[in-house]
TrEMBL record:
Primary localization: mitochondrion
Organism per entry: Simulium negativum
Cytochrome oxidase subunit II copper A binding domain: residues covered: 92-216
Family recorded in the similarity comment: Belongs to the cytochrome c oxidase subunit 2 family.
Transmembrane segments: 28-51, 63-87
GO annotations of cellular component type: mitochondrial inner membrane
Catalytic activity: 4 Fe(II)-[cytochrome c] + O2 + 8 H(+)(in) = 4 Fe(III)-[cytochrome c] + 2 H2O + 4 H(+)(out)
Lineage, uppermost ranks: Eukaryota, Metazoa, Ecdysozoa, Arthropoda, Hexapoda
Gene3D superfamilies: 1.10.287.90, Cupredoxins - blue copper proteins (2.60.40.420)
Cofactor(s) listed in the protein's UniProt record: Cu cation
Protein name as catalogued: Cytochrome c oxidase subunit 2
Subunit structure: Component of the cytochrome c oxidase (complex IV, CIV), a multisubunit enzyme composed of a catalytic core of 3 subunits and several supernumerary subunits. The complex exists as a monomer or a dimer and forms supercomplexes (SCs) in the inner mitochondrial membrane with ubiquinol-cytochrome c oxidoreductase (cytochrome b-c1 complex, complex III, CIII).
Co-factor: note: Binds a copper A center.
Localisation: Mitochondrion inner membrane
Superkingdom in the source lineage: Eukaryota
Length: 216
């Protein structure tokens, strides 16, 4: 989960989130290099004492500053495209979890088991235990085995919602009348927290998600 004054991404709990972390670091390195280069050029420009009154155009430099950014963008676009395809790939899931967003709670169904469905509401602050997490704990958690390919089907019963767990790198829009799906694999045990990430009404901030990853 996110910790106090944490400016970075959460620790990954799935291979997909690891790839997103790597891509974030890769892109950030390129942006830092560009920022330093542009800052250096602007700094030197302020102290430049020379000028050329007869300079009308420079085709060579125009070609250079057109081609170089295109090459840099390729180094960002290709890894991004690879991750987009990885996120959409479904690899023979062992378990399917159905998720339905409501105002303002989540309901879940385990499709591989008979009559296993439940609603998940946020635990109010006045009912919270001493070691509980305010605005994050729920009365019924999702429990799934780690190192198992899980498919999640997401929809909504009323308005737009978004089922999100940052540590897993999962964010799926819950749209009424539409069934969206994604998959993930948890590679470590623990509790992973998320929240609705689409403004859905007055209590949008009070429909958290808690997923418990247990050794299978």
């Amino acid at each position: 989960m996110a910790t106090w004054s944490n400016l970075g991404l959460q620790d990954s709990a799935s291979p997909l989130m690891e790839q997103l972390n790597f891509f974030h670091d890769h892109t950030l390195l390129i942006l830092i290099m560009i920022t330093i280069l542009v800052g250096y050029l602007m700094f030197m420009l302020f102290f430049n004492q020379f000028t050329n009154r007869f300079l009308l155009h420079g085709q060579t430099i125009e070609i250079i500053w057109t081609i170089l950014p295109a090459i840099v963008l390729m180094f960002i676009a290709l890894p991004s495209l690879r991750i987009l395809y990885l996120l959409d790939e479904i690899n023979s899931p062992a378990i399917t979890l159905k998720t339905i967003g409501h105002q303002w709670y989540w309901s879940y169904e385990y499709s591989d088991f008979l009559n296993l469905e439940f609603d998940s509401y946020m635990v109010p602050t006045n009912e919270l235990e001493t070691n509980g997490f305010r605005l994050l704990d729920v009365d019924n958690r999702i429990v799934l085995p780690m190192n198992t390919q899980v498919r999640i089907l997401v929809t909504a019963a009323d308005v737009l919602h978004s089922w999100t767990i940052p540590a897993l790198g999962v964010k799926v829009d819950a749209t009424p009348g539409r069934l969206n799906q994604t998959n993930f694999l948890m590679n470590r045990p623990g509790l992973f927290f998320g929240q609705c990430s689409e403004i859905c009404g007055a209590n949008h901030s009070f429909m958290p998600i808690v997923l418990e990853s247990s050794p299978s």
